[in-house]
UniProtKB/TrEMBL annotation:
Transmembrane helix found in the keyword field: yes
Organism, scientific name: Urochloa decumbens
Subcellular location: Membrane
Predominant location category: membrane
InterPro entries the record matches: MFS_dom, MFS_sugar_transport-like, MFS_trans_sf, Sugar_transporter_CS
Domain Major facilitator superfamily (MFS) profile: 29-467
Membrane topology type: Multi-pass membrane protein
Protein name from the UniProt record: Major facilitator superfamily (MFS) profile domain-containing protein
UniProt keyword terms in alphabetical order: Membrane, Transmembrane, Transmembrane helix, Transport
Record field: transmembrane: 27-47, 67-87, 94-114, 120-141, 153-174, 180-201, 290-310, 325-347, 354-372, 378-400, 412-432, 444-464
The keyword Membrane is annotated on this UniProt entry: yes
GO annotations of cellular component type: membrane
Amino acid sequence: MAGDASGAETYTTDEALSRLGFGRFQALLLGFLGTGWVAEAMEVMLLSFVGPSVKEEWGVSGGAEGLITSVVFAGMLIGACVGGLGSDRYGRRAGFLFTAIVSGVPGFLCAFSPNYATLLALRFVVGLGLGGSHVLPTWFLEFVPAENRGSWIAAFTCFWTLGTILEALLAWAIMPILGWRWLLALSSTPCFTLLIFSSVVPESPRYLCSRGKISEAMLVLERIARMNNRPLPPGTVTSEPKRTGDKYDPSVTTVLLMTEDRPDEDTSTKSNRKNTFQAFWSRDLIRSTLLLWLVHFASYFAYYGLVYLISELSSVRSQPKDSSLYINVLVTSFAEFPGLLLAAILIDRIGRRVTLGGMILLCCAFLAPLATQLREGLSIILLFCARTCVMGAFAVLHVYSPEIYPTSCRNTGVGFASVIGRIGTIVAPLTTTALLENHRQKEVVLVMDLALFIAGVVCTLFPLETKGREIH
């Protein structure tokens, strides 16, 4: 607790959330925003099932089939920037509405596509919405107490895996009977459900404080206090970090997070945008930003490379009505849960950097033996273990990435990191399929291992450990 210039007591958002704890409010918010994460995962995963059916119905080439996936990723590159900038400029709710509407409405309209070109255009727009989905875990993070923030964000990531499982089950039930159009229509329904209840979720108090809207932030915190049945600290919330004398307390506030612009300095839209980019590219943040980009690229590249590698070694043939395709997606999706659980256990105990680097290097170790010819059973076990580790790394990234940045440029920073990651998603299938078609499994493994090893080493170079720290 601290006092302002008039002597009145003030407290930070983190101090308020620590007093209020993780209660009924956060549990309901987890369910709501987690459902949004499920909806986004379903929209991404349906690409695995729709492509072969579209190819069969319209007689398009294999390259045209792959383009249905590529345009979504291309849209996500742009959407990640737009969604991040919009969330930092207009609020987390605006970012959420962007991703829900822009992915939900065109996703539903895809079911009525009269031709291939229309479907391609609509899937690109869906990608724009999906690109901004990183606002969901960030929005949730800004309501969670610092002491268990890592574990709960890792738990939040489980909703993505749940979405992939639900999509595989839905496709298994719908595709053989009703076809791909019904799958597209039904997969978009969770987005519309979220829009119906979106008005009940409040804006982030951290964002409100960063914009100088202290009274509105107090109303949100008072609502949390009522729902959690716990009292707020005495005084008023402030956006200022805790101080010890004339200095910031390094035990509570991270040096890198003190680059946030003050609300009084934002006199126009132009200055807001300028201050956001000044913070994002500041001398304190630039090192973490560049390192984060490298880790994002390697993680996305390895994840999607693994998906293609598992499919190849399992000898799965992507026939529209072949149940083995759905079984393969289900089994490999379940392999992600141990990684998420391990990340949730370790992240608030041994820290973000060690957990992230350890998961990445473990994935590298499990992949290495696949450079040689192994029995199919052993190969699948190693691939599943590798996917477990890379998913655990993703869980840590969803925690660590937004913690690095101040509220004023948090979604912008995470959005740009996501853009670099999406480049990895585009490069992975191109590299993996091209090499596997020429029976170069060894080269595929070596390329993935090299990317993972560099990323694992990079994790030791991050200047900031955010475990238990306040974010501002």
